[in-house]
């Protein structure tokens, strides 16, 4: 049982803990399991099958057969779309249970899961279901003797490697366009958050997605994930996670069959607040940019540049605003920030807070764990941050803001771009010329003007520089799961 402020939620029974291969839940061949834990307390929620290379081999075999001989890639896009619509409806029917499981496993806020993540996942499925029958090639007139056309064909067997910060959203950001394209697939959810992925596998079966089309292998990155990336029979990898692992994935592809990979990686995104900004609005945006999802989000606005004209006012007011920010049980609807996903992440964030202090930044607020149990950390702000400090350079993936002052637009553009990453940026200003100039000058894949963390399934999402390449969301995402075949034929009979 857990209270969410107004009502008492019944904790669901954990029904799905085995690997999902070729339409059945099965134990791992080794018989091994791993524990998934509740980050509120560190207690074990369930033991989940630990898949490794041998299980990946079985899942790839099933996906390969389903692709080479099965119905899914050969169905009309319309027919695939109808089955996907059914899956979306099933997700809606199980919304509360899924939202609870997601919070239990990840520490994400239950009310966010209920109104955003789970309905967002279902709507992603609907979006791509609607696109499934609108995948077309082109016709080419050629030189007159010949005509050419292209076919957009599904790329084949796809491996999806999913992170733990948005387990449901990321699952369907990858699975839904791949299903629409007619691919078959193996999903490797993050070891920290395997529960909703297995639940979705069951719903996919119930919706009528044929056996072998969607397989889920729970397990660790260095074993199951690596086996998928180096598999000769996997035709593409779609990955979201750290830049370090992204590099390993490219290496695995290069060493095996040169499968195309798309990588959505880390970030150290700037939020730039100009002196004409409404300071109260800017503070709301800045807090949302870094503390949303406890800072466990790759687009986190972790470097906040504030114009010197409003800097002192900004600091005073954000310190005040943080007094109302509640860290606590993610099932309580009054809470703004739940626990970090696990002990490793909790310790990493605390380590970075120590680096910040050691390197001479000033701790304005927070900086400590909170609560007796679990992995809760106070929202933390550092001022007097210098660009070369570790807290200003590295992705922390936690609720830690580095505040910096700036004077001129040229200076702030240079500082904002002074990072290996290029995932996102935010600009707060009412001056259209500034907004236009800065948004074109920042090398990042997504720019928010007078907002932050606003996503839409119709807007492509992905990075520049070492934040990766390839786009999730939008119709662009379909391209990752398609390949183009050119067909050329004579118009007036064969000249040969
Ligand atoms: P984090 O460091 O934030 O946990 P990771 O990049 O390590 O993020 O993890 C993201 C996903 O990548 C997880 O599903 C994880 O299991 C997987 N992963 C980790 N290492 C590898 C690897 N060597 N090959 C393939 N997948 C991996």
UniProtKB/TrEMBL annotation:
Keyword tags: NAD, Oxidoreductase
SUPFAM superfamilies xref list: ALDH-like
Every Aldehyde dehydrogenase domain range: 25-487
Residue positions of the active site: 264
Gene Ontology molecular function, alphabetical: aldehyde dehydrogenase [NAD(P)+] activity
Lineage top rank: taxon: Eukaryota
Catalytic reaction(s) noted: octanal + NADP(+) + H2O = octanoate + NADPH + 2 H(+)
Quaternary structure and interacting proteins, as annotated: Homotetramer.
Family: Belongs to the aldehyde dehydrogenase family.
Protein name: Aldehyde dehydrogenase 1
Organism of origin: Dendrobium nobile
Lineage: Eukaryota, Viridiplantae, Streptophyta, Embryophyta, Tracheophyta
């Amino acid at each position: 049982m857990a209270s969410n402020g107004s009502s008492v939620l019944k904790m669901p029974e954990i029904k799905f803990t085995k690997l999902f291969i070729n339409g059945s839940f099965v134990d791992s061949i080794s018989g091994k399991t791993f524990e998934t834990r509740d980050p509120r307390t560190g207690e074990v929620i369930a033991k989940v099958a630990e898949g490794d290379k041998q299980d990946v081999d079985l899942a790839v075999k099933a996906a390969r057969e389903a692709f080479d001989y099965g119905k899914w890639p050969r169905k009309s896009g319309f027919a695939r779309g109808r089955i996907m619509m059914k899956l979306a409806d099933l997700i809606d029917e199980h919304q509360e249970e899924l939202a609870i499981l997601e919070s239990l496993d990840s520490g994400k806020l239950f009310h966010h899961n209920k109104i955003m993540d789970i309905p967002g996942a279902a709507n992603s499925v609907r979006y791509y279901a609607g696109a499934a029958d609108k995948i077309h090639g082109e016709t080419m007139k050629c030189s007159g003797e010949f005509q050419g056309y292209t076919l957009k064909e599904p790329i084949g067997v796809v491996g999806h490697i999913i992170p733990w910060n948005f387990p449901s959203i990321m699952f369907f950001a990858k699975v839904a366009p791949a299903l629409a394209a007619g691919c078959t697939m193996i999903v490797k959810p993050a070891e920290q958050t395997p529960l909703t992925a297995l639940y979705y596998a069951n719903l996919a079966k119930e919706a009528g997605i044929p056996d072998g089309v969607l397989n889920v292998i729970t397990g660790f990155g260095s074993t199951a994930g690596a086996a998928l990336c180096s598999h000769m029979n996997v035709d593409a990898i779609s990955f979201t996670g750290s830049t370090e692992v992204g590099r390993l994935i490219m290496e695995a592809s290069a060493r095996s069959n040169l499968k195309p990979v798309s990588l959505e990686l880390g970030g150290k995104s700037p939020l730039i607040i100009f002196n004409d900004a409404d300071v109260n609005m800017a503070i709301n945006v800045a807090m949302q940019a870094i503390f949303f999802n406890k800072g466990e989000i790759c687009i986190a606005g972790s470097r906040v540049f504030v114009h010197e004209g409003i800097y002192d006012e900004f600091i005073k007011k954000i310190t005040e605003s943080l007094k109302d920010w509640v860290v606590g049980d993610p099932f309580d609807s009054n809470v703004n920030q739940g626990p970090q996903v696990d002990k490793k992440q909790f310790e990493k964030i605390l380590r970075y807070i120590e680096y910040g202090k050691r390197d001479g930044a000033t701790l304005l607020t927070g900086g400590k764990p909170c609560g007796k149990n679990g992995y809760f950390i106070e929202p933390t702000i550092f001022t007097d941050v210098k660009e070369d400090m570790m807290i200003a350079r590295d992705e922390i993936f936690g609720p830690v803001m580095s505040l910096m002052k700036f004077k001129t637009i040229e200076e702030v553009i240079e500082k904002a771009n002074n990072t290996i990453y290029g995932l996102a940026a935010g600009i707060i200003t009412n001056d259209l010329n500034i907004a236009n100039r800065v948004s074109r000058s920042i090398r990042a894949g997504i720019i928010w003007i007078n907002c932050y963390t606003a996503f839409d399934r119709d807007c492509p999402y992905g990075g520049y520089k070492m934040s990766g390449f390839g786009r999730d969301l939008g119709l662009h995402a379909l391209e990752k799961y398609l390949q183009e075949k050119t067909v050329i034929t004579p118009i007036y009979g064969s000249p040969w």
